[in-house]
Write a structure and sequence with these properties.
The protein has 2 domains: 20-117, 3-Layer(aba) Sandwich (Rossmann fold); 128-334, Rossmann fold, CATH 3.40.50. 40% of the residues lie in helices and 22% in strands. The chain contains 10 helices and 16 strands. Strand 15 and strand 16 form a beta hairpin. Helix 2 (36-51) crosses helix 3 (55-74).
Amino acid sequence: KTVYGANVIVFEGILAFANKELLKLLDMKVFVDTDSDIRLVRRLQRDIMERGRDVAGVIKQYNKFVKPAFEQYIEPTVQVADIVVPRGGENFVALDLIVQHVHSQLEKVSQGAALASAHQGQPLPKTLSVLESTPQVRGMHTIIRNKDTTRDEFIFYSKRLMRLLIEHALSFLPLKSVTVETPQGTMYEGKRFHRQRITGVSILRAGETMEQALTAVCKDIRLGKILIQTNLDTGEPELHYLRLPKEISEDYVILMDSTVSTGAAAMMAVRVLLDHDVQEDRIFLLSLLMAEMGVHSVAYAFPRVHIITTAVDKRVNEEFHIIPGIGNFGDRYFGTD
């Protein structure tokens, strides 16, 4: 099982350092050392009280199997440890050092996020494509941004924008030149999409509203869904549900969300796709509206992902809403506000 959204992952076990590939992934390796007499006493207490064994049998097993196995397989791994902690949980000095180191590592991660946010006000990344703001597009934005727009009108004009956005995004897929014969017997030089599959993945719930526009223009397209919600206590995105089509690694993936403010949910969704072996430059992130912060964050973390939207707004407020924005798209679309 893959874990997403965790700031700290603790991997524990007596053979935790046995796998060399796993060792490469660990930021800090801690060996908790316990006196051999204490280990024997603990085993005696457990096996006699909980397993109904006698003292002689426990000691015989300890000397014949447990102690030799510890000396051969576990004790030598202390050499790869960054910190050796004697007395376990009673060693408060060692625990404080470990906690301080974890905090310092988390600060480095937050500094990377701050660096992405610092790009605000800078030129937008080249991987971003914004639908041309024609009078028609601007007119539809005026309607869906208006707080007094009825739900029926909001849905209707949102769907129109989604269709235009999908069509615009498809123009970035690789096409090859082909020649076909017309009914009049003349030749026409045209374009055709390569035979690789296209898969649509929506970030629930609001991203699901874009599926209809995608299926309307892409015949027999496969669909996947990702549910990512923000933890109200930590402010961090959390993955709650994932369903992707099989053998997605070679597909061009259109990742859909209605709005992107900070980019946190979008970045987690991209990370999920990459962990399923989708190539980064084959991921197209589509959204009706994005904030500059979200655009820069996604582009900073994943510089080869294509970012496509109908408009980019300047700011995000304290509640992480896009300003001037569109309101809560899901609530307005589904009528749950």
